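Can anyone check this?
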Amino acid sequence: MVTALIMAGGKGTRMKPGVEKPLVKINGIPMIQYVIDALKNADKIDNIIVATSKNTPKTDEFLKKNGIKTIMTPGKDYIHDLGLILSDFDENDILLTVTADLPLITGNIIDKVLNKYEKSPKPAMSVLVPLEIFQTYSIKPTTVFDNLVPSGLNILRGINKTQNEEVLILEKIELALNINTCEDINLLKRLMGDGDD
């Protein structure tokens, strides 16, 4: 059984003030809804939970109104919040973690990653995107390791400790474009073929 965990408790400090980052509208739809829809379209996802925090109360309210289960976290940072959530699971549970700011992600990509994970002998998998994809689209990556950028999509077991991980490299703009700035939104709209939200 695979549980998808959407991380949506961050402050989103680089976005416009007054709007919680997961609720920023893209073509009239809150960004997090694109991620939820992709997970619902993935054949291998059994359950969806969203981690919210005091930083994202309106997101929590939106999700509950739409029947999506949420877990309240301190909203301290990604690693800290994830560690607390993992304590609610056991080591046989498989969690696919995804950030709420990947609106281009698709069910097909998620299933492809899970297919690769099922063939891996390791308990965890980290999905990275080549830096070249970011350069092609003029996207500024947050973190770079050996010309690879973390995608915001990972798989791990329900244990709060360092896990031996397989590294999966995917050349996908869908995993490169996480929305952090207004420039990212403009690029997203161009890629989606629409100008106004």
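Reply from J.R.: I decoded it. Residues 102 and 171 are 15 Å apart (CA to CA).
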